[in-house]
Amino acid sequence: MDADEYRLLRDSLRSLFTEYAAAPEGLSAAVRELGWEDVVAEEPSAASLLFEEQGRALAVSGLLDEIVLTAVGIDPAGPDAGPVVYPLGPRSAESGPTMAVDNGQMRLDGVLRTSGGGAERVLVPYATDAGTALCSIPAAVLAPRAVGGLDRDGGWSKLSGVVALDDVKSLPAATWPEAVAAGRRALAAELVGVARATLDIAITHVTDRHQFGRPIGAFQAVRFRLAEVRVAIEAAAEAVRLAYAEGPNPLASAVAKALASDAADLSVRHAAQVCGAVGSTWEFPLHRLIRRSFALDLVLGHAEGLRTELGRIVVRSAVTPQLDPLVLDPAS
Question: Are 184 and 43 in contact (CB under 8 A)?
């Protein structure tokens, strides 16, 4: 994809996210009508642009579910499709949300990325002796409820409840680790978009705001903070690019999400510093970006947990050098 094609795609997506800001339930269909499936088929890395613009616009959609379902071989528009329940926080993305089976019943605790409005069933990954499987559960039994916490505009819904095993329909999900990798790199691109939007707001503020007769962006302390953010964003964006070039590679995707989460965290913290008191007000848009960055960090493994996971991978793959035994020269 050359520079002109990139700009055209970016502008089309920005117009689309703006148009559907008030009606996110129609966003996925609108993306398909745009011919995005053909674009991604020809240029797989274009998917990163889609999620980056979603993050920049703070949009809510079911696009993450479509990426995950496609990775496990389920048609997002087919009869087995439905919203996916994701784990949060330190829980392993490999084993899925908190679930337990007891006396013929399944207890579940997890979240939906979107409300999944009107969905008859939800799809839940869970750990088995043979690996992670995927099951379909009636949504009415779990009664999804909107979450009004940190990211109130994020379309999050929480599910918890007890389900009879007779109501659980098992689906094949032998490729769940690939689905996690695909989801992580999509979330990484979205976090990069959030970070870029945050940096844009900070730059605009420090350019327009004056102290002592000059823009506050002219002061070294402010410039150094924003330069540090720019470096972190570009490093994360390159990691996302490499993750898409590698395909759904678990290691590359985990690195991309960890770096993107760190970049978004750094951007909102430094933006809060350079924007000062006005950045903490409800009228200023920064708080929405802060909320979204924290929420996205938690999905499919947060940055700290991913760094720990990556450290374990490095340790397991390390080769212990074989040292020759110390031999003393008898003549010495």
Answer: no
State how far the alpha carbon of 204 is from the alpha carbons of 18, 39, 138, 200, 275, in Å. 20, 33, 47, 6, 10
For residues 256 and 242, the answer to whether their CB atoms sit within 8 Å is yes
d(CA 122, CA 119): 7
pLDDT (tens digit per residue) in 94-148? 556 556 566 666 667 677 877 555 677 888 887 766 677 778 887 777 777 777 7
Cβ 27 vs Cβ 117: under 8 Å:
no
Q: What is the pLDDT of residues 223-251, one digit of tens each?
A: 999 999 999 999 999 999 999 987 778 88
pLDDT tens by residue, 3-21: 787 888 888 888 888 887 7
pTM reported for the whole predicted model: 0.87
The span from the CA of 272 to the CA of 288, in Å, is 12
Beta bridge partners of 111: 86, 158
Q: How far apart are CA 303 and CA 192, in angstroms?
A: 14
DSSP string of 69-117? HHHTT--TTSTT--PBEE-BTTS-TTT-SEEEEETTEEEEEEEESS--T
Closest CA to 288 of 82, 59, 94, 35: 59
Helix, strand or coil for residue 134?
A: strand
By C-alpha distance, which of 235, 266, 242 is closest to 185? 242
| Phi, psi (degrees; rounded to nearest 5) at 305 | -65, -35
Answer yes or no: are the C-beta atoms of 299 and 317 closer than 8 Å: no
Contacts of residue 50, Cβ cutoff 8 Å, sequence gap at least 6: 13, 31, 36, 40, 63, 189
